[in-house]
Amino acid sequence: MIYGYLRASTFEQDATRAKAYLQRFADEHQVTVAKYFIENASGRDFDRPVLNQLIEIAKSGDTILVEQLDRLTRLSTDDWEKLKSKLVRSGISIVALDIPTSYQLLKKSDSVTDELTSIILKKINELLFDVLAAIASKDYEDRRRRQAEGIEKAKRDGKYKGKQQTQGTIEKCLKANEYIATNGLSQLKACKLAGISISTWRRFNKTRK
Q1: Pairing verdict, β 2-8 and 63-66
Q2: Are residues 123 and 183 in the same domain?
Q3: If exposure means fewest CB atoms within 10 Å of the residue's CB, which of 82, 116, 167, 188 is most exposed?
């Protein structure tokens, strides 16, 4: 079985954005994606419910298809090693569109030679995954550091206004308010229906007062 995994960091981002790319890739390689697992969570989080569910459902020999390796992980080195060990123990392969050598893992071995080739490719890919996982983690840390430095400078210059919400986020918050006022939904249900986190909704309403 091949399973697609789609992730976005926040509810304000569209986690399904890359689904068309994965489907096109699957069609080109004449394979079928049995199911797509979609999650809004930080790649820095080790404990991701949807990813955990996927790993539990997948069996040895199955494949997880991702757009880029950073959709699967921006984990610290220690957490990445734990996740990788979990995948290896489960016998699950990872195919990432940004790692062409991983495409070979879509092909099933039908001879001893092919099996040996598959083992070699898996080891090569493990090394590539380790390198790219480290790069993804460093990129995350660098962006957070630059953001913190920028905020600190803006505070010193008296120009810091806090994180500004996008027009799309504002519209979702207004929609949640409408659900609450018109349909009498709870804050949590209204936010979920509008596709916004309750913390973002509360921050939006706080700024309006």
Answers
A1: parallel
A2: no
A3: 167
Q: What is the rounded CA–CA span in Å between residue 126 and residue 63?
A: 14
Same domain, 47 and 110: yes
Q: Measured between alpha carbons, how far is 118 from 108 in angstroms, rounded to an integer?
A: 9
Which domain range does residue 130 map to? 2-139
d(CA 77, CA 55): 20
User: Is the whole model's pTM more than 0.70, yes or no?
Assistant: no
Q: In a structure prediction context, what are the per-residue pLDDT tens digits for the chain, which is 209 residues long?
A: 999 999 988 777 788 889 999 999 999 999 999 999 999 888 888 889 999 999 999 998 899 999 988 888 888 888 888 888 888 888 888 999 988 888 887 875 444 446 666 666 666 667 667 776 777 777 767 777 777 777 677 677 776 566 666 777 888 899 999 889 888 889 988 998 888 888 888 888 887 76
